[in-house]
Amino acid sequence: MDALRCTDLTRAFRGKRAVDAVSLALQPGDIYGLVGRNGAGKSTLLKMIAGYLAPTAGTVEVCGEALGPCQTSSRIGCLIEHPAVNPALTGVQNVTVRAIAQGLPDPKRAATEMVEAVGLGEAGRDRAKGYSLGMKQRLGLALALVGRPDVLLLDEPFNGLDPEGVRLVRRLLTSAAEERGTAIVISSHVLDQLERTVTRYGVIRAGRLVAEMTAAEVEEACADYLCVETADAPRALTVLEQACPEACFTVMPDDAIRVTGAVEAEEVGRLLLEAGVPVSGLYVHARDIEDYFVELMGGTGAVRGTRGGENRG
Ligand SMILES: Nc1ncnc2c1ncn2[C@@H]1O[C@H](COP(=O)(O)OP(=O)(O)OP(=O)(O)O)[C@@H](O)[C@H]1O
Question: What is the interface pTM, i.e. ipTM, of the complex?
């Protein structure tokens, strides 16, 4: 059974679709990285799943249970925008309130353990009103995680965290997914952190889910490759395929040859030189994850906005 299933989820603001017929399904243990430019619709999508915002159309199911519009579920833990923290209570007390609401058998203990797990330590006994940005973020994560939800929705979970905090949160999420089968959706612009955490990606562009891929597919697409530019691609291909049966060769539309696999640039250059094939360019092409996603997200033009005036909810 899917841990989370959204079907044709749509939300319009003043007639303009911020999220447009998004369907996605997460299995238990999936960590799904949601990427998109500012204003693409990521937070709106998460808010609809969390039950904070009514969809204009579409449905949400969590572990097979259909949720009505704006219906929250104890199976879902969220950190979306500012966590609901009572500044007059300590960190542990805040999480205890949430644990009681979740119906946990020993709420104080669950809260204390969770505050410890997110690295708040002694600060868990201080009132939340004195917390720094990173401490608030850790508290927000503790609130999302307490009660071991089946589905976790996190909007920019790495915001404000120091490097140690980032590493700790990554470990917490990975172990929740691997050990307890929690399905996690993370919306984030911090691609290198996503790259170390997620198992799948979804790219949202102008409200639509335009691409989905596994972490392995992204890794493969972003792998370095050797590029051979030659005026005689067919002959170069014949020479290289014969000499390097282990490598993989692709002729690109501009006739350049893309080489992946166990072969060095020096070796390719030598083989072509010996065969008398003219080579005009030979270089390693490094493509990073940022280039890859910027392209999928729709380039670097102006961000998209539907807000004329504020129209919350
Ligand atoms: N309450 C609202 N009223 C009107 N328009 C809204 C409202 N909430 C979001 N929008 C619009 O919906 C679109 C999607 O916004 P959303 O916050 O979901 O984007 P996002 O992908 O999370 O962006 P970011 O990466 O900047 O957080 C934007 O054009 C935004 O202006």
Answer: 0.97
